[in-house]
Amino acid sequence: MPLYECVLIARSEITQQQVDTITDAVTAQVESESGAVKKREYWGLRNLAYRIKKNRKGHYVLLGLDAEPVTISEMERQLGLNEDVLRFMTVRVEDIDEAPSAPLARRGEDRDRDRGFRGPKPAGRFDSGRRRGADDREEYRARDEYRSDRDEDQNEEN
Fold first, then answer.
1. Which of the residues 24, 35, 97, 148 has an alpha carbon 20 to 30 A from that of 43?
2. Residue 146's CB: how many other CB atoms inside 10 A?
3. Which residues pair with 89 in a beta bridge?
4. Strand pairing partners for 37?
């Protein structure tokens, strides 16, 4: 049987459990017509590139399907009738990759990334409230530490 990938976007007002219910209905329909769901990924609630039916966000789901074309056309018809589904797109593929798709892999990398030191915090409206003296600023402390290290190095050379 041919292989397909289907990405569907559901309205942001519904819960993740309701999205799972929609996905379960699609899975049941495909499996009842001797097809199989090889891959199922929930990508989460994401921003849309543009407004669709007054929605700015949507729940994204990816399905990897092994089914006949008649089954896929019936599945697309049912998704088109569902009011909670904003958009869907089904594409025929050569093989279904078992590895996590790009959005899931990227999300894992973002969590593991270390941001590092970004420099001293600028004084502003959300400061702690205590007044800092001129010598208490982080830039001055860093400068003074650098100078003391440089002076110690020069003393050791002499």
1. 35
2. 10
3. 7
4. 65
93-150 confidence digits (pLDDT tens): 998 888 888 887 777 666 555 566 666 666 666 555 555 555 556 666 666 776 777 6
Answer whether 0.85 is exceeded by the pTM. Answer: no
At residue 121, φ and ψ (nearest 5 deg) are -75, 125
Question: Which fold would CATH assign to domain 3-98?
Answer: Alpha-Beta Plaits (3.30.70)
The contacts of residue 30 (CB under 8 Å, 6+ apart) are 36, 37, 65, 67, 71, 75
- Distance, in Å, from the CA atom of 143 to the CA atom of 150, rounded to the nearest integer, reads 11
- Within 13 Å, how many C-alpha atoms sit on residue 79's CB side? 26
154: which 2 tokens? 């020069």
Q: Where are the domains of the chain?
A: 3-98
The CA distance from 60 to 87, in Å, is 10
Quick check: 22 and 70 in contact, CB under 8 A?
no
DSSP H or E stretch at residue 35: none
Backbone angles phi, psi at 101, to 5 degrees: -70, 175
